[in-house]
Design goal:
24% strand; 6 helices; 13 strands; seven-stranded mixed β-sheet; Rossmann fold; 240 residues
Length: 240
């Protein structure tokens, strides 16, 4: 069941650059497995604990992995969720039960659920992870740029923090359309922005918005802001 839920999370869960660590996992390559596990924990934005008798009986998980994950939740905001796979004495582990469980309404082992129930529980968990990742990917637009003058075409440091997910940038032009700009790549803050053309008068104002989307935008122009996951407040840049 652990493998089925892990595969389901990867297939139906959040699809983005942020890593979701599912423990236990059996895809660690032979060799320096401890180093690989530590690297996965450092990269993860969220972790899902697959809790069962075997999970609680593992000295390595309880004495090493779990304390590291709990510490990461305190120091860098790692979000931890857990799935109650089979009946076990999890109530003796408040370091686990203090986190959100993947469940329907009441907490019960997934082993006793119907296929529909445990899949729905898993999807509820995926939704919780997705909502957490949405908060992380929120584009923080640089409000200090509001009202500043720029040439027709320029590289603009639009975000205050590096993008955690590809950020789409739209400019509202005088033709009443939102024009898609070059997206901001993961880890970057800036992108090239076009403010009109050579015929545009100085002093013209252009609204700018940054947003994340489920899929990359495909059109060059939009009559309204397209569907988004997270969107920044609008700012205005001035054609200098």
């Amino acid at each position: 069941m652990a493998k089925a839920i892990r595969d389901r999370i990867q297939a139906a869960g959040p699809r983005r650059e942020d890593a979701v660590l599912v423990r236990p996992r059996r895809d660690i390559k032979a060799g320096d497995w401890e180093r690989q596990i530590e690297a996965a924990m450092k990269e993860a934005a969220a972790a899902v604990l697959m809790v069962s008798d075997n999970f609680l009986a593992s000295d390595y998980i309880i004495q090493k992995e779990l304390p590291r994950l709990v510490q990461a939740s305190k120091t860098r905001g790692l979000m931890i969720f857990w799935a109650y796979l089979e009946p076990c004495d999890v109530k003796r582990y408040p370091e686990i039960t203090r986190f959100q469980a993947m469940k329907l309404t009441s907490l019960e082992p997934m082993a006793k659920m119907t296929p529909w129930q445990w899949k729905q529980s898993m999807l509820n968990g995926c939704d919780m992870i997705d909502e957490f990742l949405k908060r992380l990917e929120q584009p923080h637009i640089n409000r200090a740029l509001d009202g500043k003058s720029f040439p027709t075409e320029t590289q603009v440091p639009l975000l205050l923090e590096p993008a955690r997910r590809i950020v789409e940038v739209l400019v509202y032009a005088h033709d009443g359309k939102w024009w898609r700009q070059a997206p901001i790549k993961v880890g970057a803050k800036a992108t090239k922005i076009h403010l009109g053309n050579a015929a545009t008068k100085k002093g013209a104002r252009y609204k700018i918005v940054a947003m994340t989307a489920e899929r990359p935008l495909t059109q060059q122009t939009y009559l309204s802001v397209p569907d988004f996951r997270r969107k920044s407040p609008e700012i205005a840049l001035i054609r200098g």
